[in-house]
Design goal:
Shape: globular
Radius of gyration: 26 Å
Distance between the termini: 4 Å
Structural class: alpha/beta
Helix content: 25-40%
Number of helices: 16
Low-confidence stretches: 1-20
Number of strands: 29
Length: 638
């Protein structure tokens, strides 16, 4: 291992740290703890493992385990045995000196057992003996847009990650991003709209907030503004299913229906809106168009469930066809009509549920309550919709994303006989987790409202939410008081997962911090990462004279030296976190590991050295901003 101490680092405008030496972490232990686990003695696995009675992605996972830690001796065989007495996703694993036997009742149990074996191997926790495990909740899901072609590899990386953390469901918003053979005009209008909103960062927010009425968030990040062919979407669905994920399409209807209204402005509820996002349910052309779209989506996805949106509905009962009707009846009638159409085809309806909730806080009324207020200089006025609660069909699945307002709103769904799961799940925002699960919440769905590019995923807190939520939804012992502990575990696990495939000889490990501070920003709805976050570069000079730049970027691999973190001393005294503080605390999870030293928060990160065979002559920091970067240590390899 090559190490550069402060005296060998050319700092240029980089400020030297007052602390020397690299921060080291304890050996990571298994992120998932099985319900029962009898350990007898350590064992290894043979690099040429023989698999029998196993199929699908589970075999790929087990071969990876043998590749990662295989030896010339140890366990030679992994056998799969179907045991119909086990619950659907449960599994039992027995390990002897010569073989591993996986007992499962369905393919997901087989896959989760294989993933557990891989995790045991990665953490050097493979023992003879036995273990058994099963998830705590039924629905462990993720929700996102269709990926664009440029981000497809990053999307597949995420899907593999979801399988690794034992997710079983994925919702994919279709909107205008999939080819419609019956209505190509939808794609033409959607592409023009996406191009307009992508002209520069923030353009979509100008549209959303620029009128004297409330408008929906704009989802032109769907497909990255591209149109995917139906065959491309089928391939995406097939890949997800191969990883044990049940795929449900999300088709935004009534609200977030800009992809329909832009192509057919005649059905728009608000005629004066140049970018209409809500259709008129009483226009004679609306449902023929809606049902054509649904039939094409059904043909591509063959789903058991379709998510029909219905959130953030603001423009209702305005046009001459609707003005004399009760808004809550218009809302319920639309849900029932679409529900019945889907039910005739054997498909269950899912929807966002906040418009069914009469949420009152100290500051405002939200959810399904009426509103008449001035916001950002514009009047937002829309009617109450929660009064239709009793009319919603009882087999509708509710994605409950207003859970931060308290457990009392869970019971609106429970008392109406509606099955509910947490939508837009972040366990950091969930109080009374265990009680809410016991009272009837059936699981949760982590939501991504941005792209799948890895930097945006990280900075939007996606990797932290995926890992934290996996822990909460799998373990029956998880509860709210464990937040700080699991936040730390999630940071450690994300860091390990990110860099686990990078050989030690290719690592350049840097411990650093900065006096720079940027308010947290969520990169969704047309907000892009720009160059303002770049602080500088580490310039690596090799003995042969060649050089390489390693980007130092705020929010990606470095942050402020006094940022409060939930699991560090700097954050333990805080009782609540603002959205900005929580976002900043999650932003680096995946590419950096924060820790405190001498009253500063440092961030350890790893860069790839593509030329480990070359000797490094020097590493110099070259700033591109006025902010200082403090380096504690730099290590080359191990």
């Amino acid at each position: 291992m090559q190490r550069f101490s402060d005296s060998y680092i050319s700092h240029m405008r980089c400020q030297p740290s007052d602390v020397s030496g690299q921060h080291t972490y304890k050996e990571f232990y298994m992120f998932f703890q099985p319900k029962t686990w009898e350990k007898v003695q350590p064992i290894t696995i043979h690099k040429n493992i023989i698999l029998s009675g196993l199929c699908g992605y589970a075999t790929e996972v087990l071969r990876k385990a043998a590749f990662v830690a295989g030896t010339e001796n140890g366990i030679t065989t992994v056998l799969g045995v179907c045991d119909a007495t086990l619950p659907p996703e449960a599994y039992t694993v027995t390990i002897s000196d010569e073989s591993i036997t996986i007992f499962y009742s369905e393919d997901r149990g087989m896959l989760y057992a294989a993933v557990t074996i891989l995790q045991m191997v990665e953490h050097k926790e493979l023992y003879t003996g036995s273990l058994s495990d099963a998830p705590d909740v039924n629905v462990r899901g993720y929700r996102g847009f269709l990926p664009g072609r440029r981000s497809l590899s990053d999307f597949y990386y995420l899907v593999d990650m979801l399988a690794y953390y034992k997710y079983n469901t994925i919702f994919l918003e279709v909107g205008g991003a999939m080819e419609y053979l019956r209505h190509p005009e939808i794609n033409t209008a959607w592409k023009a709209y996406a191009d307009e909103t992508h002209r520069y960062s923030g353009r979509s927010l100008e549209i959303q907030n620029g009128y004297d009425w409330a408008k929906d968030a704009i989802h032109t990040d769907n497909g990255e503004g591209e149109i995917l062919s139906q065959e491309e979407v089928r391939s995406i669905v097939a890949y997800c299913e191969s990883r044990g994920l049940t795929v449900y399409p999300e088709v935004p209807l009534f609200s977030h229906a800009d992809y329909l209204c832009l192509a057919h402005p005649e059905i728009a509820e608000r005629k004066e809106d140049p970018y209409p996002d809500t259709y008129c349910p009483n226009h004679p052309d609306t449902y023929p168009l809606v049902f054509d779209v649904l039939e094409e989506v059904i043909d591509v996805f063959h789903p058991a469930v379709i998510h029909i949106g219905h959130d953030e509905l603001y423009s209702i009962a305005l046009c001459p066809r609707c003005a004399d009707k009760k808004p809550e009846d218009i809302y319920a009638d639309d849900i029932i009509k679409i529900h019945d159409f889907l039910k005739q085809r054997g498909i269950r309806t899912a929807m966002w549920g906040e418009k069914l909730l009469p949420v009152i806080t100290r500051e405002r009324c939200v959810g399904g309550l009426a509103k008449d207020a001035i916001e950002n200089g514009h009047r937002h006025c829309f009617p109450a919709l929660f009064l239709c609660q009793q009319r919603i069909p009882k087999d509708v699945l509710i994605l409950h994303w207003f859970y931060p307002y308290g457990i009392q709103y869970d019971f609106v769904y429970h008392t109406q006989g509606l099955e509910a799961i947490f939508g837009n799940l972040d366990p950091l925002d969930v109080e009374d987790w265990r009680l809410r699960i016991e009272k009837g919440i059936r699981g949760g769905v982590v939501s991504n409202w941005g792209s799948y590019f890895r930097e945006e995923m990280q900075r939007n807190g996606q990797y932290r939410q995926v890992i934290f939520s996996a822990y909460a939804m799998w373990h029956s012992f998880y509860d709210t008081p464990m937040k700080a502990k699991v936040m730390k575990l999630s940071y450690e696990e994300a860091y390990r997962y990110h860099f686990s495939s990078l050989p030690s000889q290719k690592r350049i490990t840097v411990d650093h911090t900065t006096d720079a501070f940027f308010p947290y920003k969520w990169f969704v709805d047309g907000e892009f990462v720009t160059d303002i976050y770049k602080l500088g570069d580490y310039v690596v000079t090799y003995e042969d004279g060649t050089t390489m730049d390693l980007e130092v970027k705020y929010g990606k691999n470095i942050s402020h030296h006094a940022l409060p973190m939930l699991f560090l001393e700097s954050g333990k005294e805080k009782e609540t976190y603002t959205f900005e503080e929580a976002g900043s605390a999650s932003e680096l999870c995946y590419s950096a590991m924060p820790y405190e030293n001498s009253e500063k928060v440092y961030y350890q990160t790893i860069f790839e050295n593509p030329y480990p065979e070359k000797n490094i002559l020097s590493i110099a920091y070259r700033p591109s901003s006025d902010h200082s970067v403090y380096i504690k240590s730099i290590h080359i390899g191990e």
